[in-house]
Design a protein that fits this description.
about 140 residues, alpha/beta, Nucleotidyltransferase, domain 5
């Protein structure tokens, strides 16, 4: 079964998670820096090719009223640029990720970790939670 990739886009860091081949479990990958843009696009495109990713899910931090925020619009532009070479071969989905960073920080606090020191961990947790929610919904 083709894999699914989830991205927690941010101006500074990008969280990434990938599904197992059976589409049951989301596994976070190392957090990446968002810049330089060419480098992160190359990294993600390599994953898409090597892991035969069929679907990319990008988290969009919408406003609390559900409307698109500036960040969600920027995430959409990034996602469109990312999958441009795979047009027609890779599906692109968006996931409203309101409050996911807050929830990830709370989880780290409960585990005894300091979220500020583990900012990259927050991005990993968010990407994995976006993907796991999708995998669970799909079943």
């Amino acid at each position: 079964m083709p894999r699914i990739l989830a991205i927690d886009w941010g101006e500074k860091r990008i969280g990434v998670a990938i599904s197992d081949p059976g589409g049951m479990i989301a596994t976070p990958l190392p957090t990446q820096y968002a810049k330089p843009k060419k480098k992160i696009l190359s990294y993600l495109r390599d994953i898409i090719r090597k892991e035969q990713v069929a679907t990319v899910i990008v988290g969009c931090p919408n406003n609390m009223d559900g409307t698109a925020s500036k960040s969600s619009e920027e995430a959409g532009r990034f996602a469109a640029e990312l999958i441009r070479p795979f047009r027609g071969k890779v599906s692109l989905l968006f996931h409203d990720e309101r409050l996911t960073s807050w929830a990830a920080r709370q989880m780290l606090k409960e585990m005894g970790e300091k979220p500020a020191k583990g900012a990259g961990r927050v991005d990993q947790i968010v990407a994995a939670s976006i993907l796991q929610a999708y995998l669970d919904w799909k079943r």
